[in-house]
Amino acid sequence: MKADLDRLMAERALDALLIFPGENEDPYRTYLSNGALHSGLVIKRRDHTPVIIVNDMERDEARHSGLPVYTYDDFGYGELRRTHKDDPDGIIAAWYRRIFAELGVAGKVGAYGVTDLNTALRTLRILERTFGDALQFVTEQPRETIFDRAYETKDADELARLRDVARRTSAVMRATREWLATHRAAEGIAVKADGSPLRIGDVKRHVRALLHAQGLEDPEGMIFAQGRDAAVPHSRGTDDEPLRLGATLVFDLFPREPGGYFHDMTRTWCLGYAPPEAQAAYDAVMTAFSRSQEMCAPGLSSGQVQRMVCELFEAAGHPTVLHTPSTTDGYVHSLAHGIGLNVHEAPYFPTFSDRYTLQAGNVFTIEPGLYYPERGYGVRVEDTACLNEAGDLEMLTDCPYDLVIHLES
Amino acid sequence: MKADLDRLMAERALDALLIFPGENEDPYRTYLSNGALHSGLVIKRRDHTPVIIVNDMERDEARHSGLPVYTYDDFGYGELRRTHKDDPDGIIAAWYRRIFAELGVAGKVGAYGVTDLNTALRTLRILERTFGDALQFVTEQPRETIFDRAYETKDADELARLRDVARRTSAVMRATREWLATHRAAEGIAVKADGSPLRIGDVKRHVRALLHAQGLEDPEGMIFAQGRDAAVPHSRGTDDEPLRLGATLVFDLFPREPGGYFHDMTRTWCLGYAPPEAQAAYDAVMTAFSRSQEMCAPGLSSGQVQRMVCELFEAAGHPTVLHTPSTTDGYVHSLAHGIGLNVHEAPYFPTFSDRYTLQAGNVFTIEPGLYYPERGYGVRVEDTACLNEAGDLEMLTDCPYDLVIHLES
Fold first, then answer.
1. What is the pLDDT of residues A110-147, one digit of tens each?
2. DSSP letter string over A323-335?
3. Which residues of A touch B343 (CB under 8 A)?
4. Does B87 touch chain A (CB under 8 A)?
5. Where is the domain boundary, A97, A129, A149?
6. Does B109 lie in the same domain as B22?
7. Cβ–Cβ of A122/B140 closer than 8 Å?
8. A127 and A35 within one domain
9. Do A217 and A297 fall into the same domain?
């Protein structure tokens, strides 16, 4: 959690963390800024509070962080732009020289952020030339950075926000199921009151209205995929397809509170009836889902849970990534991922590694699935859970699991 | 426009453009992928069609681009992950070696994208070590990159989408004004039918519902700021404030079609009446707004228009960034910015530079404003315009400019 950053910085001998300015949303910036939205620079020295440096126009927003806020002009940015008018690289060099001198930034610095790469790379090269040996930009293994490690556990404030977005997302999922059940079956498809086909685009529109009513954003979109599409895990579904009776519908919903925390959940439904093969796959997935919940506990490697699920599926005759690594049939992904300001973050559940040990404060999905594109179906069930301070697995998602939604004819 | 990329690459001696994989939204990736949403790698060699390399699960989505699509495993990613299990840097080196050999990537390469900086920097350093002199990653001046230059003009497909998002955004702005006018005035504030105060949070909720009904997203939020907040250009407004009669309300709306193009517009309103000082500032802003429209034409430097507005305001006694560069009173920003897949992009309208020459295909805002935080008011008016193929300034925004919204008592 955020309180671990100083310890993590000490362990990795990092003297400072640097988030470059940028207009896009940046979860690193949001995290260090305690949720305040701005496009400025954030600098955290080890054992010091982060400080924010923003364009003067953003000073009020930045102060919502509760952190020290400086403006660009506190370090002479406007003046440098005039004196170095034809030397933009010189502006960068001189400006950072002032900032780093004033704030005491030196040594091993980690540059983080979701930011414009070409601009950041140019700035880094300028700073390397400007500061020489006094400053080294260090990189870390992806998924093992200091932020990945901090994100891996949530503090009480974060858990409260994650519970709230879980409650609201679950309400949308339940309402979608209830709304689907108000449709009729006719000639093998679901139809509206006027007899016209109910299409995937109609469903997505209705879900967006439900999300809106719950005050949720869907910056990453959603998946509502049917039949063969449902068997390609990240296919988002085809808007103009009518909903067919007996087809598996995989509905994966991962919205966010505005500018903040995500939830992630999936239900698979069949309208009218479930074909025996889809029902059998669904039962196998639900077994894996229950076994995973029973198994997840502090001290266990997440990889062990992933391999247990692979073995369970393989024993039932399904290929998995454990012994058929590039398979597109059967169980083709990993069981879970952590979730927070990023829809995917640590802890991950890799098949071939034990580098994530489950611990109190983890918030992660559990999402077994089986996929058969050639046979035209896929199923997945997903809830988000946390390991609370008592070490218990607490399911944050609250929504029934019934496969079949009955429609009137 | 996109068709200029090969010419721009030749001018700058760039052999290839590289967009790294990443889960976040990336306008560079969207642009090169013709709007297809995926988290993969995009590589464009000079005089070749871009190619997309995605995780197998995203292959269907990536194919919506109409471009050649490869999967990670086409270059042995899964196999490398097994053979280099304890050497993640080695996986990156070997995988890119296969990709670059197969696709013929060498020479001067520009790395672009809005991406995870620490990860991208690590990858770049690995590639520099792996390829030695055969590959150089070049950086460009921010706001002058090959993409900035391409974004600067829009092709017919892009203009059609920008006109459509303009139409929908204008409808939201007009509907907001009409809805505000249905409220009553009581004891110096606007009240709802039940007599309770109408607050900024209520307005934003209503606007979000209107955006939703128009199928628009607001990934960057909106500004609805009153009085002193309205005088700090990027202050977003305070949700629990009741709307006060006679206060300036600056409503800046910059939504986006899902995953695509932005619109940007601002109106300033006073409920009930306008105090003489606010009315005078508004009149001055409207004069600057009209003069700017008359002046914008192909061949002119955008800086000339910005300086004309500064001089106009200074002649009326307002400080501006022309002669009072760090002022927070008066005219404190630049007149305009281009808009497209980014809410701010080229052409910019810098005060002290003539590096942007207006030309057919530009799409940009025009947004003069005057700000007096100590006196508790700010005003801004903004439309988005394009210079069409005939060289005419075509206003894309369609919404009245009346300052005062009359309320019944």
1. 999 999 999 999 999 999 999 999 999 999 998 889 99
2. TSTT-SSBB-S-S
3. 23
4. no
5. A149
6. yes
7. yes
8. yes
9. yes
